[in-house]
Write a structure and sequence with these properties.
Blueprint: H1 2-6, H2 9-16, H3 31-43, H4 48-57, H5 59-64, H6 78-106, E1 117-126, H7 134-151, H8 161-176, H9 180-205, H10 209-227, E2 246-248, E3 258-268, E4 278-284, H11 294-305, E5 311-314, E6 331-333, H12 342-348, H13 354-364, H14 374-409
Helix pairs in contact: 2-6, 3-6, 3-14, 6-14, 7-8, 7-9, 7-10, 8-9, 9-10
Length: 418
């Protein structure tokens, strides 16, 4: 309740209200309701369905979202959350991070000067996809084409449903037994079945512009899957329902390759009174080199926090960075010797403080697996995860303040934070 009264909902209404118009039609849902739902979802790591269930039964959730009286049924539809996220986009959703830092400043959980020194690092936000293999992709592409052909009444010579499934099972068993010649023969069968279905559909829909438009995207993906090789250069398809997924290797022994999008995360250098706050998050499609991300990250961060960045600490992955000219000598890397004073050397020991923040973002705020579609979903999920993390720190900070007030009023009693 205290957090609901502290947040400047007028600022959020001004930022989010830019996308609405006064045209005739159904009026939009209140901004406080939708913004509050987005905050609650990523603060407590809830799916859209579970969030709706808890909102109906929890009066605190309803008060936080602006309800004056207890509602016994949903005043919105679950799909409204999806449409609202898509309409806002990454740029406007960043206002939630901005407001969380503003609330932290007003409640003295963080000092404005502490926002000028930050730690920057990158991580991978995995997409909700299965681990890709050539056999699974080939079989899945064939299944999707056969299903779409059946939906549009396109007759096929053969669907290869039975033999395709059997070839997939054979490949997996041979590969597990390390009988790779036999596994490659089963893989060749799967590639042949997919090629036959692609050519059959191409002949059947030739000249029909409507059907060609229906099959265009899936046929393009299927051809890409069929033609791509194991060690080829350039982009590859790792998932048919999320073709934007990229393969990223971060050098982890337990997870050599991750499939998703690279994300830049920035936190305060100092451990503030309210905790380690996230000051900036940005999805970086295309798997860019870490050092080449500072050119866009630094201006975005300054616009978000409303402060000039005085010092940036990063790991050795940022060597050869492309920071703007005014910031060339404000970026310090792990192991750097030149220009490092004793104070900066002490600060560099805190560079690893960003790692547990990334761990919390993934484990508790829905960055560990992104369920939102397309590149817009990648960007929105990263921003919302950071906002949820900051609001979780604020709830903890306000509970500590409440305990101190109650302890001062009632010295004989002991109170523990929620």
């Amino acid at each position: 309740m205290t957090l609901g009264r502290t947040v400047d909902w007028g600022f959020l209404e001004e930022r989010f209200g830019e996308v609405y118009t006064d045209d005739p039609g159904r009026p939009p849902l209140p901004t406080r309701l939708m913004a509050g739902l987005a905050i609650l979802k990523h603060t407590y790591d809830l799916s859209d369905e579970v969030l709706c269930e808890r909102w109906v039964e929890n009066p605190y959730y309803q008060y936080f979202c602006g309800e004056e009286f207890f509602q016994h049924r949903l005043v919105f539809d679950r799909s409204s959350l999806t449409r609202w996220r898509n309409r806002m986009g990454e740029e406007r959703l960043a206002a939630l991070i901005q407001e969380s830092l503003s609330v932290a400043t007003r409640t003295k959980a963080i000092k404005p000067s502490e926002l000028s020194r930050v730690i920057v690092d990158t991580t991978v936000q995995p997409k909700n996809v299965t681990f890709p293999t050539d056999a699974k992709l080939l079989n899945r592409a064939r299944e999707k084409l056969v299903r779409l052909a059946k939906l549009h009444a396109v007759p096929l010579r053969q669907s290869y449903a039975r033999v395709g499934k059997f070839a997939l099972i054979q490949h997996q068993r041979y590969a597990h037994a390390k009988q790779f010649k036999r596994a490659n023969r089963a893989l060749k069968k799967l590639r042949t079945y997919l090629g036959r279905v692609i050519r059959d559909i191409g002949r059947k829909i030739e000249g029909d512009s409507g059907l060609e438009g229906m099959f265009a995207q899936l046929l393009l993906l299927a051809r890409h899957v069929r033609e791509q090789q194991q060690r080829q250069r350039g982009p590859k398809v790792y998932s048919l329902h999320a073709p934007e997924v990229e393969c990223i290797g971060k050098g982890k022994a337990h997870r050599p390759y991750e499939f998703g999008v690279k994300v830049s995360v920035a936190t305060t250098l100092k451990h503030c009174k309210g905790g380690q706050f996230v000051t900036h998050v940005k999805a970086l499609p295309g798997n860019p080199y870490d050092g080449h991300t500072l050119e866009t990250v630094i201006p975005d961060m300054e616009a978000l926090v409303g402060n000039t960045i005085a010092r940036i600490l990063a790991d050795k992955g940022y060597r050869g960075h492309n920071a703007p000219p005014d910031y060339k000598f404000r970026v310090f890397l792990s192991g750097q010797k030149r220009g490092v004073t004793p104070k900066i050397r002490r600060e560099l020991r805190r560079r690893a403080a960003v790692e547990p923040v990334i761990g919390h973002l993934k484990a508790e705020h829905r960055m560990g697996r992104n369920y939102l579609w397309f590149r817009q979903g990648d960007a929105a999920n990263a921003v919302l995860a950071a906002a949820g993390y900051n609001f979780r720190r604020l709830i903890r900070w306000l509970s500590i303040l409440l305990r101190q007030i109650l302890t001062a009023l009632f010295p004989g009693l002991s109170f523990n934070p929620v």
